[in-house]
Design goal:
The protein is of the alpha+beta class. The chain contains four helices and five strands. The longest helix has 17 residues. The mean pLDDT is about 90.
Length: about 120
């Protein structure tokens, strides 16, 4: 009964007397880390039609026609163009979708991802 009375008065901290009549509670905040981001890139080739690349950019990267055309021309002129920046899982999915779609339509279009 005496132990119970002391606990009710706050004389215990973690099961031991602290002698001051107060208890200290510490909370640690979990440290969250932002996920790494990945750039999804389309690579130029000499066989995939420009219109198909524009279609891919509109369909899988939600680009409007003007933005898709601009990216396609950048790919055509510079050999590579960025479609977007995503978390790993989203980037991996988009690369897979683009590659599968290109193969279904018998185009050698290459889509890759790289850590930003």
């Amino acid at each position: 009964m005496q132990d119970y009375a002391r606990r009710m008065q706050g004389d215990f901290e973690g099961g031991k007397e602290n002698g001051r009549g107060t208890a200290v509670i510490t909370r640690t905040k979990p440290k969250t880390k932002k996920p790494s981001l990945y750039r999804v890139l389309i690579l130029n080739d000499d066989y995939t039609p420009m219109e198909f690349v524009v279609h891919v950019l509109e369909r899988f990267f939600q680009k409007d026609h003007e933005a898709a055309t601009r990216i396609m021309l950048h790919v055509h002129n510079h050999g590579v163009g960025e479609c977007g920046v995503y978390t790993f899982e989203v980037a991996e999915t988009k690369v897979s979708q683009v590659m599968d779609f290109a193969r279904q339509h018998q185009h050698p279009l290459q889509c890759v991802m790289e850590k930003k």
